[in-house]
Specification:
Layout (H helix, E strand, L loop, with lengths): L30 E5 L4 E7 L3 E8 L2 E6 L9 E7 L2 E4 L20 E5 L4 E4 L4 E6 L3 E8 L4 H21 L4 H4 L9 H28 L39 H7 L11 H4 L4 H9 L2 H15 L5
Antiparallel strand pairs: 1-10, 2-6, 2-9, 3-8, 3-10, 4-7, 4-9, 5-6
Helix pairs in contact: 1-3, 1-7
């Protein structure tokens, strides 16, 4: 919204997330989404933060999956987009020969109407489609773990860049349209910047623990729980019928909810062959679990106080 309304900054004040406990968060920290009927966002999860989405106009369907469904959604980092892990599954017309585990997923289906606000927890998968012309606004809520996630994204991008220069991938094949190719020097600088930020945060936490007299690797009495802020402190009971918890659905209910749209998104033979050997190899190397192990090793090796 900052770019769209930079000459009319008063409109930022029209967006107010304080009702959810985020005082001072307005349109400057928000993104506006405008879509025509049948516009869709591919199934993915965000590696940073969590998400609040407010529906302003029209009707939009969200199909969400919990993090426990990740293996059944066949994650891929190609095409690459920072902070987004995509699913190989065509949600509207899944190939159950190639993606047979998809039948074991637990979808959560909700249709947002004007005035509705949806909370999307960290690492929850979501596929979004506009049932009509739609306008919505969202804000990503930062989490303490985002420093680690940014390092992981920096390492992922560096590795992907190196592999795609070796294998015959065009930018259109390995980069999402929202991303721009970055030269190796900038990738390395991004990794170093993210690593420095992680190490500085770790050192700050250790200093705080020492000031409190807490020893490392020694059993201590549990610390008093910190007061959780913002969204986590809301008294949901006070919202009554306005606050609704989405119930899980079945695979059959998921297919029924997308019935009538499938004919527009039939998988072609080219799509079915898309995940070739090179793609599987790269996805194995940049798998989030592998990247997490690498980043932990980086932090261990580069820690200024390491022996």
């Amino acid at each position: 919204m900052t770019e769209l309304f930079e000459t009319n900054s008063d409109i930022f004040k029209c967006v107010d997330w304080s009702v959810f406990g985020f005082n001072g968060r307005d349109g400057k920290e928000s993104t506006i989404w405008i879509g025509s009927r049948s516009a869709e966002t591919p199934c993915h999860y965000d590696t940073y933060g969590c998400n609040l989405v407010a529906q302003l106009y029209g009707r939009k369907r969200w199909i969400c999956f919990p993090p426990s469904n990740t293996k059944n959604l066949y994650p891929t980092r190609i095409p690459y987009e920072e902070s987004s892990v995509f699913s190989l599954v065509n949600i509207r017309n899944p190939d159950l020969v190639k993606c047979d585990k998809f039948k074991s997923t637990t979808p959560y289906i909700v249709t947002l109407e004007p005035g509705d606000v949806l909370f999307v927890p960290h690492k929850w998968w979501h596929y979004v489609s506009s049932l009509t012309t739609t306008i919505s606004i969202n804000t990503w809520i930062e989490l303490e773990a985002d420093n680690d996630r940014r390092l992981e994204e920096a390492v992922t991008r560096t590795l992907l860049s190196a592999f795609t220069q070796t294998y015959p991938f065009s930018n259109e094949e390995w980069l999402n349209p929202t991303e721009e190719e970055i030269v190796p020097e900038e990738n390395y600088a991004y990794v170093k910047e993210s690593l420095d930020r992680c190490l500085a945060k770790k050192e700050s936490n250790q200093t705080e623990r020492k000031e409190k007299g807490i020893k490392e690797n020694v059993f201590n009495e549990p610390e008093p729980k910190k007061k959780r802020s913002a969204l986590w402190n809301l008294d949901f009971d006070n919202y009554g019928n306005e606050m609704k918890k989405i119930k899980p659905s079945s695979y059959l209910e998921l297919m029924n909810s997308t019935e009538g749209n499938n004919k527009h998104h039939l998988d072609s033979e080219e799509d079915n062959d898309k995940e070739c050997f090179q793609t599987k190899l790269i996805n194995s190397i940049v798998d989030p679990d592998v990247i997490s192990l690498m980043c932990n090793k980086f932090k261990e090796k580069f820690n200024s106080k390491a022996a």
